């Protein structure tokens, strides 16, 4: 995440990391793979739009499709619950390609980030 923040012109710090971890912490789920923690997923599930606050996969678990599986699972749950999913992503974040491929579309943007939504086709 530091590399993405730096590429977006942000200065990573321990304080900023802690703020991100604590934000919506009650919605956090630790992702386990073979009983080892390999990620973090935070989703605030308020209808009619769920907010994907944070998804992180440890470098050791990246490139294995875990992020995509997590997102596909979230999308399936959202569709079953008849809600949409929104997220915010730095424009320089490589995950942008994944979000677009899975059907998220840009609804707004700031100087350094896109707001995206997966609209439930209801």
The gist of it:
The chain has 122 residues and is an alpha+beta fold. The chain has helices spanning 2-7, 14-22, 66-80, 95-101, and strands at 28-33, 36-44, 49-57, 84-90, 105-109, 113-118.
Q: Would you kindly provide a written description of the structure presented here, covering whatever features stand out?
A:
This protein is of the alpha+beta class and 122 residues long. The protein has helices at 2-7, 14-22, 66-80, 95-101, and strands at 28-33, 36-44, 49-57, 84-90, 105-109, 113-118. The chain is built from 4 helices and 6 strands. It is globular and about 40 Å long. The mean pLDDT is 90.
Briefly note the structural class of the backbone: alpha+beta
Tally the structural domains.
1
Strand tally is: 6
Q: How many helical stretches?
A: 4
CATH class: Alpha Beta
- The oligomeric state of the chains shown is single chain
**Gyration radius over CA:** 14 Å
Detail the poorly predicted runs. Answer: none
